[in-house]
Amino acid sequence: MKIQQNSFEYKESFHLLNGGSIPGFELVYETYGELNPNKNNAVLVCHAFSGSHRAAGVDKETDKPGWWNEFIGPNKAIDTNKYFVVSPNNLGSCYGSTGPATLNPATKKPFGKDFPLLDVYDWVASQNLLRKSLDIQSWEMVLGGSLGGMQALEWSISFPENIKKAGIIAATSLISSQNIALNQVARDIIRKDINFEDGDYLIANKKPRDGLRVARMLGHITYLSESNFKNRFGRKLQDINNKIDSSINFEVENYLRYQGEKFSEYFDANSYILLTKIMDSFNPAGRYNDNLVDALRHCKAKLLILSFDDDWLFPTEYSKELHFAAIMAGINSSFIELSGNNGHDSFLYANEEYVSAISNFLNHA
Amino acid sequence: MKIQQNSFEYKESFHLLNGGSIPGFELVYETYGELNPNKNNAVLVCHAFSGSHRAAGVDKETDKPGWWNEFIGPNKAIDTNKYFVVSPNNLGSCYGSTGPATLNPATKKPFGKDFPLLDVYDWVASQNLLRKSLDIQSWEMVLGGSLGGMQALEWSISFPENIKKAGIIAATSLISSQNIALNQVARDIIRKDINFEDGDYLIANKKPRDGLRVARMLGHITYLSESNFKNRFGRKLQDINNKIDSSINFEVENYLRYQGEKFSEYFDANSYILLTKIMDSFNPAGRYNDNLVDALRHCKAKLLILSFDDDWLFPTEYSKELHFAAIMAGINSSFIELSGNNGHDSFLYANEEYVSAISNFLNHA
Predict the structure, then answer these.
(1) For chain A, which domains are there?
(2) Is any Cβ of chain B less than 8 angstroms from the Cβ of A168?
């Protein structure tokens, strides 16, 4: 599989949905496979909250596979012998694309907490500029899980001429007040870290690692399901020789803290706050008087709406509501609930049904 | 209704289930109604996580009703014309009974983080000493919601000769690894507060209020249900003039932060950590090779096991498991699921069915 790492630079002022602008931006992205001469085999893959442009292949240095490597590659669900896959890192994230940790050209300091609040629409608009730069008229499909699925939905509503199919996986058109509340707790945890410095930690050469770690632990709980926790950890006590911290009693505590610590080494705290805010305010029907059916009337793509039965962050019921709204809007929509073993994170793991659902839709629908 | 405020002092060394001891203790408690001459009309009410001995009546200074005032009083579910209700504040809590904020007689400083890890068994054993001091042979009923229900269960297993009926409401015999994980996040939030001082904040004359506030916000999310959040807040934006903090966008965020701030004014951080640990390790079957049926064979009380359909902290399934174990153990157990509107917190709010379930069981079962 041909893998290319690229960067797209947009040098004009980029106006944002919520008002305001950024003075140009950079999107880093990877591509897998090759664009055909007719340029009609391109698939856009959108990452979730803490994902990156590294969706496929295996990193030579770290030996770490891309987050959707099980799905993208030769003879996989998105077959790179046939399709050209484009995977950008989103604005506001921290893997190379313009975000809070980027230097603000006006001040020569990192944007930090002054990075403007983006909307999922802005992500999609920036991806649309990337599409134009690649001279692709229309994506064969745009897809992703969780926040990635929300981008696929936004694409189908806001750029209907440039997308043929959308895969909206483990996603929703609107997050619940419970989700908002959990995101707020995560933000408060980070902001109260002694090293947060009111968002200016980079300038102070500090890092709010404890806050990031604990916020990630909370997130992690919501990404998995209770049955997954039960099967993996139950109530096993942590082996005393492998305890990270003497205050730990149960294996589940040790696991979460370890995962949180790893995460806190590389993720940016302002990005974490910004991305939760983007999730909170996602509402593609907002520009249509909050009427999702009216919003979906603009869509011309075929939709595949996919949920997992053990996802408690964005349960099946949300996907069904979206599917019914699509039907009411008279568009071609197909819904499937799969059984998952990893809660909300089930969208990351391949199994035969899941792979078939995606490849059938991409190739035959 | 006759209300009395009392204190029970135990002046001998009190040995704990996990080993170790405390050099005596004080339990503050309230009583409602009057003990009859035969001393066979006593009901013990056990409070939940952040509850206190103030279960009934209305505080004259603050105008605040007791946490179960809707259930305890003349002609209420627990009729104080007939029953004598005893409501202690648990060891390790912070409303007057011996706990982390109490002075350690050996050091003349607050116990703080050195307060030993208690078990629910120790709570019940201390309540049993209170029972003896009141010269009551047997409680007519012991009941409570959440951690209160766990105490009622522990009573029925560990002191079978001194309890006739147990009301185990919105409770479980064992919390899940997901619950443990959420408790761990709460503990980590508190411990990372800049004013926590490794647990010695009282000695340093500080208070980890931010940590307590955010931990409580997380707890609050788990006590309510998603449908409750949806009905109360939906995705309403907060009126800008009433924002506590400019980072707040949604009404639900403002509500949680306000509630968390109030809580952080009066609750003790070491108590919070201790109580979550007590909840994590609760396992009345632990002394019976983790066999709950074997544990329940010791029980002589009649059990009322009550759950709420919208409780996601301790869902109905947990109550059913307990009920089946009781049936397998050959004891008299009755199970009822009620519809709730307040998630896990539904156990606090009276409605006709709930009140009838308790009063029928208490008076006729």
Answers:
(1) 3-174+282-364 (3.40.50.1820), 179-276 (1.10.1740.110)
(2) no
Rounded to the nearest angstrom, the gap between the alpha carbon of residue A178 and the centroid of all alpha carbons in its chain is 19
Closest CA to A362 of A166, A187, A229: A166
Q: Mutation test of the interface with chain B: which of A173, A176, A185, A290, choosing the one with the most B Cβ atoms within 10 A?
A: A185
Which residues are CB-contacts of B113 (< 8 A; sequence separation ≥ 6)?
Answer: B100, B198, B199, B200, B270, B273
Element (H, E) at A66: none
Cα A208 to Cα A308: distance, rounded to the nearest angstrom = 34
Task: Report the alpha-carbon distance of residue B31 to residue B66 in Å, rounded.
Answer: 12
- A360 pLDDT band (50/70/90 cuts)? very high
Over range B301-310, report the average pLDDT: 97
The rounded distance, in Å, linking the Cα atoms of A279 and B230 is 17
Tokens of A326: 């699509």
- What crossing angle do the helices spanning A269-281 and A177-191 adopt, rounded to 10°? 160
pLDDT, tens digit, for every residue of B10-51? 999 999 998 889 999 999 999 999 999 999 999 999 999 999
CA atoms within 13 A on the CB side of A212: 22
Contact B281 A182 (CB under 8 A): no
Nearest chain A residue (CA) to B314: A226
Segment holding A25, helix H or strand E: strand A25-32
Q: Six-digit token pair at A178?
A: 């419970």
User: What does the DSSP 8-state code read for residue B201?
Assistant: T
Per-residue model confidence (pLDDT) at position A239: 72
